[in-house]
Amino acid sequence: MAQDLPPTGGYEPVQYKRNLPARGFRPSYYLFAVATIMTYGMYKAGQGIRERNELAREKMWARIHLIPMLQAEEDRDLVRRYWADQAREKELLGGNAKVYHSDRFVRPTFSISPAKSTKE
Amino acid sequence: MSTRQPRLNQQVLLDTTPLPASVPPVPEIGASSAPLLSASFFIGARCGAFNDDYMKCKEEARGRGEIDCMREGRKVTRCAASVLDDINKNCLEEFRKHWKCLDNNNQQLWHCRRPEQLLNKCVFDKLNLEKKIPGSPEGETPIHLRKTQTFSHNISSIREDEPQV
């Protein structure tokens, strides 16, 4: 019986590669495109951050210029209340007891209910 | 400023006793936040020395500044009041436009550059007070003089067709 042999000239080459068309551009082009977009975006973001820093500086200095005036007004009000309290205490009790073991100014946190209530 | 008025029993109890006569009276400012923000850099330009003096006094008084620095505090208030007074006398219209713009735009300065330009020009011409932001980087246009404001939604903030001042 004749033995099974390869055909004359050998077998056909086996097709192991896929035959798909390569779509689009070369991959490096996409890399460059994305890099360009990102660079532009980061540049604009950086510009925005710098502008925001300047706006924050402007706002901060606006407040710095106003703080002493607001603080002076507040302090005057506190001192007015404090002296009124002291005078009231002296009138009622005949003297001022030293309440705190300190010479610092302590912001009055209490209020005396007046005989007549104030109309708002 | 930040003190809460004591509220007892649903009545507002205010101590209305005035300061003793030995303290010179000083009228308080009485302006709300938008006009103050609008005028802040002019207050800083004219009253910077008084402001620094007062804050230094408070710092050095070591906790007694409220009473010991009342004199400096009166100077600060008088100076700020004089600035507001001068602006009201000389640039009332521009001033109003600017602080109303600030009030309508969340008190964000970058939405109101056009009214601010007009106000700054008027105040510089008549009162010789200039808005300067300390510490802004050298060689760059200061933020309040730039033609474009990236974060502004207000088309009227700066327009190219209007003359720049």
TrEMBL record, chain A:
Protein name as it appears in the record: NADH dehydrogenase [ubiquinone] 1 alpha subcomplex subunit 13
Functional note: Complex I functions in the transfer of electrons from NADH to the respiratory chain. Accessory subunit of the mitochondrial membrane respiratory chain NADH dehydrogenase (Complex I), that is believed not to be involved in catalysis.
Keywords: Electron transport, Membrane, Mitochondrion, Mitochondrion inner membrane, Respiratory chain, Transmembrane, Transmembrane helix, Transport
GO cellular component: mitochondrial inner membrane; respiratory chain complex I
InterPro entries referenced in this protein's UniProt entry, alphabetically: GRIM-19 (IPR009346)
PANTHER family: NADH DEHYDROGENASE [UBIQUINONE] 1 ALPHA SUBCOMPLEX SUBUNIT 13, NADH DEHYDROGENASE UBIQUINONE 1 ALPHA SUBCOMPLEX SUBUNIT 13
Topology in membrane: Single-pass membrane protein
Cellular compartment(s): Mitochondrion inner membrane
Species for this entry: Cladonia borealis
Protein family: Belongs to the complex I NDUFA13 subunit family.
TM spans (from-to): none
Keyword Cell inner membrane (UniProt): no
Lineage: Eukaryota, Fungi, Dikarya, Ascomycota, Pezizomycotina
Sections of the chain in a coiled coil: none
Automatic annotation (TrEMBL), chain B:
One Pfam family of this chain: CHCH
Keyword terms of this UniProt record: Disulfide bond, Electron transport, Membrane, Mitochondrion, Mitochondrion inner membrane, Repeat, Respiratory chain, Transport
Domain of life, per lineage: Eukaryota
UniProt record, GO biological process: mitochondrial electron transport, NADH to ubiquinone
UniProt-listed PROSITE patterns: CHCH
Location relative to the cell: Mitochondrion inner membrane
Function: Accessory subunit of the mitochondrial membrane respiratory chain NADH dehydrogenase (Complex I), that is believed not to be involved in catalysis. Complex I functions in the transfer of electrons from NADH to the respiratory chain. The immediate electron acceptor for the enzyme is believed to be ubiquinone.
Family per similarity comment: Belongs to the complex I NDUFA8 subunit family.
Protein name per the record: NADH-ubiquinone oxidoreductase
Lineage: Eukaryota, Fungi, Dikarya, Ascomycota, Pezizomycotina
